[in-house]
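Supplementary Methods. Inverse-folding protocol.

Structures were first reduced to a discrete structure-token string of length 374. This string, shown here, constituted the complete conditioning input.
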């Protein structure tokens, strides 16, 4: 037997004895060493439920392979791994084109099948990403949100030279994803970055990761549109990491001609704009680009990209591109980013619900809450 948090119905999550799952022929059993609580886990547990219940949530995780399925080499036992939670069908038209991240019929660890809020989880061998020794389990558990932010940054900054002085970048929302977006931008060499937050802890974290105090806008005291206009004279790339109508508007009203509006935040409600704001999109020929999840290719397919697949403009047209997961892995390995700075709470598995409740009830400031099983 093993322990796991099982979501039985909305609001009813219990720490229980469960059978250790048995890996199918193309799967491995992973002993979970670290799992982050994602912002999406809070509504999943307390508001909407999961696609299927009972279910063990948890999709941002790392661990050690402890057992292999019949068609998987036993050599993988003992491997330290992070795991891509999205399981493409490999049959639909998008998968056939190689665009498995846009699969029309995917499965998902931690929302559609059992995830990592437990001691063990079974995952397809194709979804494993090996962690080199200098990447900790905690960092491994952060590759999933890092990869989402990498998708945003690599898409938003494709073809833009970080040394070009005219490039002004703004990031609205200093939650985990917004802060990671900033980290990745800095790692790429961008320096003229302006950020918007609304809590003292947002300001502290932003400055801690290298934002200049005069580049931080506290929207409780400053009006972001006027502030951004004054500071930037037109934003080239705007990352919306909140999902609110207002914060999308700030980007549209401050965007430079031909600016890119990168929409990352999950929508909190319906979106609508005044006619004048809408005119800005037309008159300035702005691009609005949606970001969803991240690209992941199994290790076998990644080999052919070679060493230089990690360049800043890896998403440029016509060039072979490394996927977001392996891009993040390479930056962690190189020491270019330090996401552990964002971990504000560490709990053992049996205290996982404390973390969920802190996030639901906002009883304390938090950024990333990590469950550590070591
Ligand atoms: Zn997530
Ligand atoms: Zn598919």
């Amino acid at each position: 037997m093993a322990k796991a948090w099982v979501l039985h119905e909305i609001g009813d999550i219990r720490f229980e004895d469960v059978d250790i799952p048995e890996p199918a022929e193309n799967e491995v059993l992973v002993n979970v060493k670290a799992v982050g609580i994602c912002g999406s886990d809070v509504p999943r547990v307390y508001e909407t439920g999961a696609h299927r219940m009972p279910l063990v949530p948890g999709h941002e995780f790392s661990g050690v392979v402890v057992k292999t399925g019949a068609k998987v080499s036993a050599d993988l036992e003992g491997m330290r791994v992070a795991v891509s939670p999205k399981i493409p069908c490999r049959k639909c038209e998008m998968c056939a084109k190689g665009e498995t991240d846009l699969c029309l019929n995917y499965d998902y660890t931690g929302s559609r099948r059992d995830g990592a809020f437990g001691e063990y989880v079974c995952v397809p061998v194709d979804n494993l990403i090996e962690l080199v020794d200098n990447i900790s389990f905690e960092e491994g558990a952060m590759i999933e949100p890092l990869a989402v932010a990498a998708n945003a940054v690599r898409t938003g900054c494709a073809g833009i030279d970080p040394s070009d002085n005219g490039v002004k970048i703004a990031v609205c929302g200093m939650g985990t994803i917004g802060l990671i977006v900033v980290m990745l931008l800095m790692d790429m060499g961008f320096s003229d970055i302006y950020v918007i937050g609304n809590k003292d802890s947002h300001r502290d974290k932003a400055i801690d990761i290298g934002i200049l105090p005069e580049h931080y806008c506290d929207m409780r005291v400053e009006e972001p549109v006027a502030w951004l206009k004054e500071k930037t004279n037109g934003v080239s790339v705007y990352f919306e990491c909140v999902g609110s109508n207002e914060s999308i508007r700030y980007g549209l009203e401050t965007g430079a001609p031909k600016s890119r509006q990168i929409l990352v935040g999950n929508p909190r409600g319906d979106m609508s704009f005044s006619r004048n704001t809408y005119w800005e999109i037309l008159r300035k020929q702005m691009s609005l680009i949606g970001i969803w999840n991240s690209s992941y290719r199994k290790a076998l397919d990644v080999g052919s990209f070679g060493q230089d697949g990690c360049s800043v403009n890896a998403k440029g047209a016509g060039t072979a591109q490394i996927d977001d997961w392996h891009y993040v892995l390479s930056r962690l390995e190189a020491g270019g980013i330090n996401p552990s700075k964002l971990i504000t709470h560490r709990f053992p598995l049996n205290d996982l619900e404390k973390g969920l409740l802190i996030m639901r009830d906002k009883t304390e400031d938090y950024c990333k809450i990590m469950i550590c099983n070591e």
